[in-house]
C-alpha cells in the first residue's frame, strides 16, 4: 500500500499569503496524484487532478505540481474562504489511499 | 449537473450489517464511470472503501474486502454499500462519489455526495 504523507498537518495563515502544502508518496506514483478541499461540515471537492491539471470552476489561485514521489499544492493570494482541510489522493496503484490531511486556519 | 445523495440508518448495532444507498441524479449510472464509497471517522481523514462499474467490475480496499459488498441498481440509478459485522471503529461519515477510470484502475472522485453519519452503538 502506498502511504501519502502531507506537511504541514496544520497551518495558520493570513489573507493574501501564498501557501504551499506538500504530499510525499512512499514510492513513485508518476502523476497519479489528486487534491481535494474539504470545508467544515462539507464533503470534499476536487481541486486538481493528475498532479497539475486544473478543474473547471476552481479558482486559478489553486495550482499543483510535482511527479514521482513529491507533490505540491499552492494557493496564491489566500482568501478567507480557503479555510479548509486539504487532502492528496493517489490512484497509481490499489488500494487507493489519501494523505492524512492539512488543515488551514485563516488568521 | 450530477448529484449524489446517500441514505440509510444513522445508527447500527455492533455485529450487524450497515446498509447505505446512493441515489444519482443528472447522470445515468449505465453511461460510464465507476461509483465509489469513501468514509471519514469523526475528526479524522478519508478512507476508500470500494468502487464499482455498472457492469459489475469492482475494486475493494483489502482492509475491508471481507466485509464489504457494493452493488448497482441501474433501473433505479443508484448503488449501494453493505458492511457486515460492524464495530465502533466503523463509525464514520460515509460518502458516495463518481469516480473517473482508465483501463485497469480508477482515479479521482468528482462529485461527492453530502455524506451521511453512521454511528455503531448498542
Question: Mind explaining what this structure looks like?
Answer:
The complex is a heterodimer of chains A (107) and B (122). Chain A has 107 residues and is an all-beta fold. Chain A contains no helices and eleven strands. In chain A, the strands form two sheets. In chain A, strands 2, 4, 5, 6, 9, 10 and 11 form a seven-stranded mixed beta sheet that branches. In chain A, strand 5 (45-49) and strand 6 (53-54) form a beta hairpin. Chain B has no helices and eleven strands. Chain B has strands at 3-7, 11-12, 18-25, 34-40, 47-53, 58-60, 68-73, 78-83, 92-102, 105-112, 116-120. In chain B, strand 4 (34-40) and strand 5 form a beta hairpin. Chain B is globular. Classes of the chains: A mainly beta (107), B mainly beta (122). The A-B interface holds A 32, 34, 36, 42-46, 49, 55, 87, 89, 91, 93-101 and B 45-48, 51, 59, 61-63, 95, 100, 105-115.
Proportion of strand residues of chain A: over 45%
Summing up helix and strand content along with how strands pair, one would put the structural category of chain A as: mainly beta
Task: Give the ordered list of helices and strands of chain A.
Answer: EEEEEEEEEEE
Distance between the termini of chain A: 37 Å
Query: Which geometry of chain B do the CA atoms define?
Result: globular
Which spans of chain B have pLDDT < 50 for at least 5 consecutive residues? Answer: none
Largest sheet geometry of chain A = 7 strands, mixed
Gap from first CA to last CA of chain B:
39 Å
- Uncertain stretches of 5 or more adjacent residues of chain A: none
Number of helices of chain A: 0
How many strand units of chain B?
Answer: 11
Tell me what portion of residues of chain B adopts beta-strand conformation: over 45%
Principal-axes shape call of chain A: globular
Biggest chain pair contact, residues each? A-B, 22 and 22 residues
Level of helix content of chain A? Answer: under 10%
Residues in helix, % of chain B: under 10%
Average pLDDT value of chain A? 97
Question: Helical segment tally of chain B?
Answer: 0
Mean pLDDT of chain B: 95
C-alpha Rg of chain A, in Å? Answer: 13 Å
Number of strands of chain A: 11
